[in-house]
Amino acid sequence: MNRLFARKNRGFTLIELMIVVAIIGILAAIAIPNFIKFQARSKQGEAKANLKAWFTSQRAFLQEKDRYVEDIKTLGFSPERGNRYAYYFGTANTCEPRKATGLGTGTEYNCIYVDQGKFPTTPEDPGTAQAPSAPTFSGGGTDPAVPGLSTGGCPGCNIAGVASGNVDNEATGNDTWFIATKDAATIAHKCGNKDETTAVAGSPYLSFNDVDCD
C-alpha cells in the first residue's frame, strides 16, 4: 500500500521536463511566425480599404468634373482617425498631420500622415521609397509619377496613389501598397507581389511586404 502511494506522488524526471519544454518550443516556433503574418494581414486591410475608397472617389470625381485631382479636400477623401499607414497622392507632398491635438487645418492636402494621436511613437512620414518604380500604364495619355497625377489633362489622364506604413514594428522597411486609375504593367516591385507584374486599375498592389521582405 505504501509503495503504491509513493508511485502516485513521485515528481517528473528531468528527461520528461526537457521533452515537454522541447515540444512547447517547437509549437511556439511554428505558431509565432504564423501569428505575426496573420496580424500583419489584418493591419494591411486598412491600406487596401482606404486605397479602394480613394479610387472610387476619383472615379466619381472624373464623372462629374472630367478630371482627376490630387487634393484630398477637393476630392472629399478623409480616412478614419487611427490610420497606421500614410497615404500619398501627389508628386510634391503637402500632408495632413494627424496628432492627439486633432487634424490639420490646411485648405489643400495631397497626402495624409500616420495618425500620431493613435501611434505616438511611429514616424508620421514613412515615405514612398518602397513604391513600384516606372510602371507602364495602358491606354493613351502620359504616365503619372508614382504617386501623382499625369500631365496633359483628360481624356487619357491617370492618377496613382501609395500607402506606406510599419506593420511589423521593425525599423527597416515599410509595408507599401500601390493603386492607379489605369492598368499598370511591367512593375518593378520592391519585394511584394513577386509573381505579379500587372496591377489592375482600382486594385491595390502590394509592392513591399513588411513582414516577408525585411
Automatic annotation (TrEMBL):
Subcellular location: Membrane
The keyword Transmembrane helix belongs to this UniProt entry's keyword annotation: yes
Gene3D superfamilies assigned: Glycoprotein, Type 4 Pilin
Keywords carried by this UniProt record: Membrane, Methylation, Transmembrane, Transmembrane helix
Keyword Transmembrane helix tagged: yes
Gene Ontology CC: membrane
Database matches in Pfam families: N_methyl, Pilin_PilA
Region described as Disordered: 121-145
UniProt-listed PANTHER family: GENERAL SECRETION PATHWAY PROTEIN G (PTHR30093), TYPE II SECRETION SYSTEM CORE PROTEIN G (PTHR30093:SF44)
Main location: membrane
NCBIfam families, sorted: IV_pilin_GFxxxE
Transmembrane segments: 12-36
Protein name: Type IV pilus subunit
Record's bilayer topology term: Single-pass membrane protein
